[in-house]
Amino acid sequence: MKTAFSLLLQEYVDPFELDYEDCRTFQIVCPVCKEPIFKVSRKIDDKATDYFSHYRQDKTLNEQCELRVNRIPTERIEETRSESRNQKLVLFLGVFQDIIWENEYSKTNIKKAKQRYFQLCRSRLFSSFNKYQLQNYRVIVKDKNEILDMFKESLENLYENLEDFKSNFALNIQMEFAYDFFQHLLAGHSKANFFFLLNHAYILYLDKLEKESKHSELHTWEQVMFDYLCRFLKTQNEKKRMNLMNRMGEYKIISPYTHEEIDLFIMFGSQLGYHAFGILLRIPYLEILQKQLKDRDPGTLHHHH
Ligand SMILES: [Zn+2]
Q1: How many whole angstroms separate alpha carbon 305 and alpha carbon 303?
Q2: How far does the centroid of ligand 1 lie from the alpha carbon of residue 303, in Å?
Q3: What's the gap in Å between 29 CA and the centre of ligand 1?
Q4: Is residue 276 in a domain?
Q5: What is the CA(41)–ligand 1 centre distance, in A?
Q6: Which among 29, 53, 134, 159 is most buried, taking Cβ atoms within 10 Å?
Q7: Count of alpha carbons within 13 Å of 290, Cβ hemisphere only?
Q8: Which of 24, 45, 72 is the last residue of a domain?
Q9: CA-to-CA distance for 62 and 1, rounded, in angstroms?
Q10: CA of 166 to the centre of ligand 1 (A)
Q11: CA of residue 32 to ligand 1 center, whole Å
Q12: How far is the CA of 72 from the centre of ligand 1 (A)?
């Protein structure tokens, strides 16, 4: 059959999107009888074809299901998808802040992170900078491809390889969830969560610079950035903070990414973006769904073979 249902995602999926191993991870079942199925790739008349097949070799079952699966209307598939996406957003939003604290820090650095977080929260200047970022992202967020390109750019900047993401499908799923989630954070009622995200992006960027500075791995401009960001955090004086930001704007560098001349303040904005997207792409969306699935019906997890 050409359409399957993922118990984990609560959505219909196509065979060409998945790898064989994904069927297990995403708990892929027959939409009709809910039996586990697996992906088959065959060459028919020299053309590669992907489809799903039941584990049970019961011919009548196969044929009956096939017939009924073929009759699932496209509108129903789309409707299930958008309903399920909304439910997932609500689920992710409910655990968002806890997950970030848990996911991004270790026992050894969480205390420092919390201090830094509250120092940032106290800065009115940083919160107006966040508001300005919010406006910027609101303009581009509707262009999904643009955002997905930015995600890829972030991953290239933050990771040397992408082995953390188990399969292409898993990485695509992370990007899809991160996109849906990002879109939601930019909506009016979720502003606090967007600011929360950017505060953490600041902390993680500072952490990275700090670590690399200990191993003397920083370029000159990164060293200067590190120095400004530390001072920005430490001072409680907003005039001094304003002064630091202005001086960042006057410091010119050649961007290692585009080879154009930019200032440190612009660079600061794009680094914050990379780290914010990194956070969104690292949220363990699938684990959250698995946990929900387990809580809802303890039986389904052992359903697959
Ligand atoms: Zn079936």
Answers
A1: 7
A2: 14
A3: 8
A4: yes
A5: 19
A6: 29
A7: 10
A8: 72
A9: 9
A10: 28
A11: 5
A12: 13
pLDDT per residue of the chain (305 residues) written in tens, 0 to 9:
899 999 999 999 999 888 888 898 899 999 999 999 999 988 878 888 899 999 887 788 888 999 999 999 999 999 999 999 999 999 999 999 999 999 999 999 999 999 999 999 999 999 999 999 999 999 999 999 999 999 999 998 888 777 766 677 888 889 999 999 999 999 877 789 999 999 999 999 999 999 999 998 899 999 999 999 999 999 989 999 999 999 999 999 998 877 899 999 999 999 999 999 999 999 999 999 999 888 876 555 454 44
**How far, in Å, is the centroid of ligand 1 from the Cα of 20?**
18
Buried b (16+ CB within 10 A) or exposed e, 70-94: eebeeeebeebeeeebeebbeebee
Give the distance (Å) from ligand 1 centre to CA of residue 65. 5
For residue 6, how far is its CA from the centre of ligand 1 (angstroms)?
A: 13
Tell how far the Cα of 8 is from the centroid of ligand 1, in angstroms. Answer: 17
Whole-model pTM: value is 0.87
Q: How far apart are CA 158 and CA 171, in angstroms?
A: 15
User: Which residues constitute the domain of residue 159?
Assistant: 80-289
Q: How far does the centroid of ligand 1 lie from the alpha carbon of residue 61, in Å?
A: 6
The alpha carbon of 220 and the centre of ligand 1 are apart by a number of angstroms equal to 62
Quote the pLDDT of residue 305. Answer: 42
Task: Identify the domain boundary among 49, 72, 95.
Answer: 72
Give the count of domains, the chain: 2
DSSP single-letter state for residue 13: E
In a domain, residue 302? The reply is no
